[in-house]
Amino acid sequence: MAESNFSTFRYLENQSAEATFILLGFSEYPKLQVPLFLLFLTIYTVSVVGNLGMILVIKINPKLHTPMYYFLSHLSFIDFCNSTVVTPKLLENLVVEDRSITFPECIAQFIFLCIFVVTEVYLLAVMAYDRFVAVCNPLLYTTAMSQKLCAMLVGASYFCGTFCSLTLGSFLMRLSFRGRNIINNFLCEYDAIVSVSYSDLQVTQKITFAFATINEVSSLMIILTSYAFIFITVIKMPSSGGWKKALSTCASHLTAITIFHGTILFLYCVPISKNSWLMVKVTSVFYTVVIPMLNPLIYSLRNKDVKDTVRKLFHTKLHGDKI
Fold this sequence. Notes:
Helix content is 77%, strand content 3%. It has helices at residues 2-18, 33-60, 67-95, 103-136, 141-144, 147-173, 190-194, 202-235, 240-269, 277-301, 304-319; strands at residues 20-23, 100-102, 180-183. The protein has a 3-stranded mixed beta sheet. Helix 2 (33-60) packs parallel to helix 10 (277-301) and helix 4 (103-136) packs antiparallel against helix 6.
């Protein structure tokens, strides 16, 4: 009996390994394939230049060697990786007829995407805590946000992302898939993958819901608590100049978390039906392709030190001067 069960498991495992997935993407709009390709190529180019440029700017300017920019450099790295995991395959599928992806490739894309998305969830929470310390305890900021603590907080964010990703990926690899499977999306997103599985999804869906709830609730609690204390501190400030300065240090981060968490919450609150798949795809494009482009723009356009460093960098390239 045990041998029979093992043989059945090996048969299903082999079937899944040989399965292929067809990423429909935006193929239902054939006339938009070229315009979409040019649009996403432009967004990806801006995203790569913006995020790698932000990392370079932070590295070469000693003024930016602070905890806030240390976290921002990791956010830029995550956004670069997030976009790179998804966009090249999206661009390829807009210009080729064969939109297939193998089972291992699909699972790998999901795992890497999950790593960077979950890591960003926690990193944005860490950055909220950093702003809380900077505004509420400015005299103790340098001491409280030591290099060791900053490294531990970033490391913990990557650990949470990796742990969640590998756990969910292991559950996906246990599911049964057969032959050619049509995925009505442009990437191997979790719900799209499980929708074509032949396995019982009860346990997998419960685990996924638990992880998603814990990640979103815990990170939002840190963010909301941090900004609640920031708000209380700001309204107690006697001068308008003080609260304007405090709010300006938080404005970029508030914009980033509103866009990111708003998109994630909207995506997972949309009921998956025949009529909602387009909305799911558009929302997925936003958090995997557009947001990685927006974050460096959000943080650079409102930041004098970043803009000054970029100007000096261009001046150096043009005139050969030192920064």
